[in-house]
Specification:
The structure is a single chain. This protein is mostly beta strands. The protein has one domain. It has no helices and 11 strands. The chain has a 3-stranded mixed β-sheet with strand order 3-2-5, with no helix packed on it. It has a two-stranded parallel ribbon with strand order 1-4. The N terminus and C terminus are likely disordered.
Amino acid sequence: MVGATAMVDATIVVGATAMVRATAMVGATAIVDATIVVGATAMVGATAMVGATAMVRATAIVDATIVVGATAMVRATAIVRATAIVDATIVVGATAMVGATAMVGATAAVVADCCLD
């Protein structure tokens, strides 16, 4: 949780721990109006991400439906109108994602560029 700007109206669920309106991000700018649920298995919608798949140089996740186990997040505007996740590997499963790009567990991804307009 170093550097970077802010996480606005974000609810990050790591396991059973909830961090609301956190300001922890690594090398990124802002995640706005997002609800990030970690401890996941699949992200279904605009971009599919299952297991330990990597999203490299993705453009945006807009109006995506993120299905995390039994939890659903509809219209995730976390990475809308942004460069999304650049050169970052998101491990969705046993790995907890704390902040925006910092992943705690088996994989660390600290290279992200989520620059809102």
